[in-house]
Structure formats: structure tokens, C-alpha cells
Amino acid sequence: MMHVNLMNNYFNPNSVYTEEDFRRHFRMRCYVFERLLRDVQQVNPYFQQKRDRASYPDFSPHQKVTVSLRMIAYGSPADSMDETHDMSESTFLDTLQQFCDTIIQVYKDEYFREPNQEDLNRLLRKVEDCGFPSMIGSLDRMHWDWKNCPTGWQ
User: Fold this and answer.
1) What torsion, rounded to 10 degrees, do the Cα atoms 57, 4, 37, 35 define?
2) Is the pLDDT of residue 99 over 90?
3) Is residue 104 domain-shared with residue 31, that is, in the same domain?
4) How far apart are CA 2 and CA 6, in angstroms?
5) Do 89 and 139 belong together in one domain?
6) Using the 8-state DSSP alphabet, how is residue 9 labeled?
7) Model confidence pTM above 0.85
8) Which CB contacts under 8 angstroms, 24+ apart, belong to 75-84?
9) What CA–CA distance (Å, rounded) separates 107 from 35?
């Protein structure tokens, strides 16, 4: 049932939520999600649809990728997945581990590598355009002071 709801809400034609809603909820565009889904399914059989011991469909690949991304994007606690995605804490943690391991395996050569000189030059130009020259040590720009920061965060 949760798979059907997920598909009707986000992935089927005439889904409940728009592409803009999808991007806001998943923190990525739908085609990026579909690429991740396809890539992890090709590499790791854990993300292929199976049946449990009672011959009922197991969690769908869409459900597994969705709960993993929700944990990463929102920092959702594992024990909250039983209420919203009908998945136990231990299953969710297994799914998250499988997802992270698979993402590293699939994308490590392209995205998880030491930057070369060309990468560094491009990044330096980008941060200089934002007014932060020579700021390669803090690409997320979190080292600058915010004068209106709430005192609890200072």
C-alpha cells in the first residue's frame, strides 16, 4: 500500500505532487532520483523488487531509495520510518547502509575523488564570484560570520 501511495504521489502520470513539489520534498529533480534508482538497482540486487517468505512483495526499490534519501536530506531518525513508510527501524538502517555503500561504489570514481588542478581552479573562480576569494578550505562558505545569528547558535 505504501508503494502505491508513493507512486501515485510522485511518480505516476498525473501524480498528486508537481515536479516543483518533488524537488522540494526530495531535494533533487525527479530525473536525478530516477538515475540514482536505476544505478543502484543495476549494481545491488538489494534494490530489486523481491517477495518475502510469505510471497508478499517486499519493499519496492522506490521505497528503499526514498527512505534513504529522506534520512540523508532531512536527518530523519530511523524509528520514524515505521509511521510514515511502514518500515521498521532495523530494515531502514539496513536499507540506508546498502544505499550508501552502493552510491559510493557507483559514483566514487566520478564524484568521490581528490580534486585536480582544473577542479580547484573552477572552484576558486566560483567562490571568488561570490565574494570569497581563496576560500578553498570551506566550500560551503560556513566560515564567515553572520551578525544576525541567534545567540543560541553563536
Assistant:
1) 150
2) yes
3) yes
4) 6
5) no
6) I
7) no
8) none
9) 12
Instruction: State the Cα–Cα distance between residues 84 and 87, nearest whole angstrom.
Output: 8
Is 102:44 a contact under the CB 8 Å cutoff? yes
Q: Alpha helix locations (H) across 15-116?
A: 19-26, 30-43, 61-74, 81-84, 89-111
pLDDT for 23 equals 92
* pLDDT at position 135: 63
Residue 130's domain comprises 115-143
Residue 78 within a domain: yes
**Domains identified in the chain, total number:** 2
Are 83 and 123 in a shared domain?
no
SS3 content of the chain, % helix, strand, coil (to 5): 60, 0, 35
The CA–CA distances, whole Å, from 88 to 28, 78, 149 equal 25, 8, 38
Residue 93 CB burial class (10 angstroms; 0-12, 13-18, ≥19):
middle
